[in-house]
Design brief:
The protein is an alpha/beta fold. It is 38% helix and 22% strand. The strands form two sheets. The chain has a six-stranded mixed β-sheet with strand order 6-7-8-3-9-10, with helices on both faces. The chain has a four-stranded antiparallel β-sheet with strand order 2-1-4-5, covered by helices on one side. The longest helix has 20 residues. The relative contact order is 0.17.
């Protein structure tokens, strides 16, 4: 008897020939790849390779001109979904440039991330029945737990704008996790961090994966990419030129020529 196929055997994310153009410039040209459940996947390439545009297509900020993007066990299409709908489906992201609410506290920033899962609408917020109060307490408790997980428990009531750069990076990831995503997209999370902060980030990324979250990350620091990624995808001029294990990517002549350079230390 043939064994029943488990849904978890299907990729959590599938891209098929995704193409995006801005005027006459091709940002993405028929990019195809899959991301498996529970993996940490690195997305690398030189500036202008189309990495952030790819994130924007996945999260609804840009609509692909052609191609398909499927997500989850049901492989539902992400086509024509607004960003908030993508978030509600289980995808969260951070940005290359930190986008926190600087005049809100760390706790409030994380609670904003959790509100995509809240049921209270305008009238619920105004009237505040008992169930809304209970929901807000759950969101607050969840935010406290995430801040503690990121080592920011003592910064709960500090304004986000007053936090150090490294703490702001952590806070942005905590806010993304507050929506309980199945897939987390990290856009250059190590940018601007010192070596100690990068080591802490590596541990955090692995710990997030242990919580059952699949991770797709853009990163220019090759040490970070090669140490934390289990699979690496390489873009150049909007096209996928290679993918495979970190070891395979480090030895790929096309990747060395296009991005890593001959002096790259493995």
């Amino acid at each position: 008897m043939k064994a029943k196929t488990s849904l978890s055997e299907f990729p959590i994310l599938t891209l098929q020939e995704v193409t995006k153009r801005f005027g006459g410039v091709g940002a993405l040209e028929q990019v195809s790849f899959t991301v498996d459940h529970g993996k940490i996947v690195g997305l690398i390439g030189p500036n202008g390779a189309g990495k952030t545009t790819l994130f924007n297509c996945i999260t609804g900020l840009n609509a692909p001109d052609s191609g398909f993007i499927y997500f989850g066990d049901s492989q539902a299409s992400l086509a024509r979904l607004y960003p908030y709908q993508v978030t509600m489906n289980g995808i969260a992201r951070t940005f290359q440039t930190i986008r926190l609410f600087k005049n809100m506290t760390a706790l409030e920033n994380v609670m904003v991330g959790a509100h995509s899962k809240a049921r209270a609408g305008l009238w619920g917020a105004l009237i505040r029945p008992e169930w809304v109060k209970l929901e807000q307490k759950k969101l607050r408790d969840h935010a406290h737990q995430l801040l503690a997980f990121f080592g920011l428990g003592s910064r709960t009531n500090e304004l986000a704008g007053n936090l150090s750069y490294g703490h702001q990076r952590k806070l942005e990831i905590a806010r993304a996790l507050a929506s309980d995503p199945k897939l987390l997209l990290l856009d250059e999370p190590a940018a601007g961090m010192n070596p100690k902060e990068k080591e802490e980030l590596l541990d955090l990324i692995r710990a997030i994966r242990e919580r059952g979250v699949t991770i797709l990350l853009i990163e220019h620091d090759m040490k970070v990419v090669m140490l934390v990624s289990e699979h690496v995808i390489v873009l150049d001029y909007g096209k996928k030129i290679a993918e495979g294990s970190p070891k395979k990517i480090q030895n790929d002549p096309r990747v060395i020529e296009a991005y890593l350079g001959k002096d790259f230390k493995k």
